């Protein structure tokens, strides 16, 4: 048996389904996929992160007596060439977004493809309600999985240590420049290993539930990027968090967050159209004004919390969860712009971009998804600033022009605009007016759907 082990987003050797299921002679490979890379800007930070971690994966595989063959090209062409070497099958991990499914369908016509759930804990097809339909409400989904999230340990995969590497020339390693990218400076935590981040988080978890919404604090685990690229598996993360010296209440709270990630993957599997359509079927009369969208993208909306969050995203690829909720609500409700535009923009910018979590969260914010925020609950961005960053510490750290402005002014609607020495953009829309407009529009869309049914 000769197998290709295609590493894609599971850049690790611990708890690896493919290294565990592999037999005999293997060719581990990683492809810098032109179909993905050609669409990205040259300063994409994720490519620097992936590049560094592909080199680490090569080293880790070498330590196991294997190696990693690195390619730069189109998967289809690469597998057509590899087929000539008589491989029986390809082992890899599975993703449920349309791009991944289409790519895998094509490849499986060249060499049989075996795919494993290796980036998530749950197998979505296994979890159904008594009536055999999928869950749509998180709490019911989560409660049905008590036997998993209440356990202290989930079984992990053990690598097959008897594998032999296929004799090949493994020496090709393109530089980032060969791939057409410029090396980017990454936030410091991305140079740390998952274990180092868990160690740091062990000092924060005791206050996680209380502090996680305060977006000027660093109260989260910062593990979403490592999870995204599989430097740690969600199973190992689950086990490591469960063994921390912290109260059950805090540990359970964190595990529940991890299961939101599972839930959105589950939803994308069962409702693949949610990538493109309002999952609840409503038709919203979206605002198509491109200038409005661009102002949101660039952080020029005139609302300091939204502007600071967007400017920081553009610069660093990072955004706190509470701020993601604020800017997505502002875009879809106050500006009444289609969530799909925001989703695509986040996909381009977020270091931790994960199709299922991003699509699910955007549909949640837009009140178009499953278990979404009710359409009449529109976040007031000024109250969010006041509640979760009372001293405007985060906002001032990004919007330097507001450094000497009182926090009270910053979280008062039109406050900064009244300061004649500041040249701050005018608000695009009044908060109360736009809130009422959104509620009316969503009410109409929901009624139309009911009448149509
Ligand atoms: C509009 C919007 C878009 C989002 N897009 C993404 C995305 O593309 N990729 C992504 O990983 N997360 C996304 N999230 C969820 C969340 O914001 C991030 O997972 C979190 O900010 C990552 O920081 P952390 O690792 O410190 O999280 P922690 O608070 O330490 O949480 C631990 C882990 O739980 C998971 N998690 C936490 N909250 C959520 C959530 N609401 N939904 C799904 N998983 C969650 C993440 O894997 C996270 O790493 C989005 C949220 C919103 C509102």
Automatic annotation (TrEMBL):
Binding site for FAD: 208, 254, 257-264
Alphabetized UniProt keyword annotations: Chromophore, FAD, Flavoprotein, Lyase
Molecular function GO labels: deoxyribodipyrimidine photo-lyase activity; DNA binding; FAD binding
Class in the EC hierarchy, top level: lyase
Database matches in InterPro entries: Crypto/Photolyase_FAD-like_sf (IPR036134), Crypto/Photolyase_N_sf (IPR036155), Cryptochr/Photolyase_FAD-bd (IPR005101), Cryptochrome/DNA_photolyase_1 (IPR002081), DNA_photolyase_N (IPR006050), Rossmann-like_a/b/a_fold (IPR014729)
Cofactor note: Binds 1 FAD per subunit.
EC number: 4.1.99.3
Cofactor(s) recorded in Swiss-Prot or TrEMBL: (6R)-5,10-methylene-5,6,7,8-tetrahydrofolate; FAD
Gene Ontology terms: biological process: response to light stimulus
Family to which the UniProt record says this protein belongs: Belongs to the DNA photolyase family.
Protein name per its UniProtKB record: Deoxyribodipyrimidine photolyase
Provenance organism: Aliarcobacter trophiarum LMG 25534
């Amino acid at each position: 048996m000769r197998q290709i082990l295609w590493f894609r987003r599971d850049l690790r050797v611990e708890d690896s389904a493919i290294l565990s299921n592999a037999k005999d002679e293997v060719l581990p490979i990683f492809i810098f996929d032109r179909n993905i890379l050609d669409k990205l800007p040259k300063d994409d930070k994720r490519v620097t992160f992936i590049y560094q971690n592909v080199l680490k994966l090569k080293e880790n595989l070498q330590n196991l007596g294997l190696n990693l063959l690195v390619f730069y090209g189109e998967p289809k062409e690469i597998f057509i060439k590899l087929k000539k070497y008589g491989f029986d099958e390809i082992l890899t991990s599975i993703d449920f977004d349309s791009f991944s499914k289409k790519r895998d369908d094509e490849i499986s016509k060249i060499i049989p493809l075996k795919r494993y759930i290796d980036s998530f804990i749950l197998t979505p097809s296994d979890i159904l309600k008594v009536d055999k339909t999928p869950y749509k409400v998180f709490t019911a989904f989560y409660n049905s999985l008590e036997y998993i999230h209440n356990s202290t340990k989930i079984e992990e995969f053990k690598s097959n240590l008897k594998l032999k590497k296929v004799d090949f020339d493994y020496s090709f390693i393109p530089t980032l420049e060969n791939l057409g990218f410029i090396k980017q400076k990454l936030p410091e935590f991305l140079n740390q290993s998952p274990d180092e981040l868990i160690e740091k988080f062990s000092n924060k978890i005791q206050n996680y539930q209380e502090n996680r919404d305060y977006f000027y604090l660093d109260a989260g685990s910062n593990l979403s990027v490592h999870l995204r690229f599989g430097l740690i598996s969600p199973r190992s993360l689950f086990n490591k968090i469960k063994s921390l010296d912290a109260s059950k209440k805090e540990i359970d709270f964190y595990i529940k967050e991890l299961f939101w990630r599972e839930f959105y993957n589950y939803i994308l599997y069962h409702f693949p159209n949610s990538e493109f359509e309002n999952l609840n079927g409503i038709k919203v009369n979206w605002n198509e004004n491109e200038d409005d969208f661009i102002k949101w993208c660039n952080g020029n909306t005139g609302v300091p919390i939204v502007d600071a969050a967007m400017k920081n995203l553009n610069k660093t690829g990072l955004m706190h969860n509470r701020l993601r909720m604020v800017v997505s609500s502002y875009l879809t409700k106050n500006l009444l712009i289609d969530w799909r535009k925001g989703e695509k923009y986040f996909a381009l910018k977020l270091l931790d971009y994960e199709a299922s979590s991003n699509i699910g969260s955007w549909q949640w914010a837009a009140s178009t998804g499953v278990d979404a925020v009710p359409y009449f609950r529109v976040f007031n961005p000024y109250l969010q600033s006041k509640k979760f960053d009372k001293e405007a510490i985060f906002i001032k750290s990004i919007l330097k022009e507001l450094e000497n402005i009182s926090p009270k002014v910053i979280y008062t609607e039109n406050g900064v605009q009244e300061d004649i020495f500041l040249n701050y953009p005018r608000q695009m829309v009044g908060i109360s007016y736009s809130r009422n407009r959104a509620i009316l529009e969503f009410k109409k869309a929901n009624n139309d759907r009911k009448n149509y049914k």
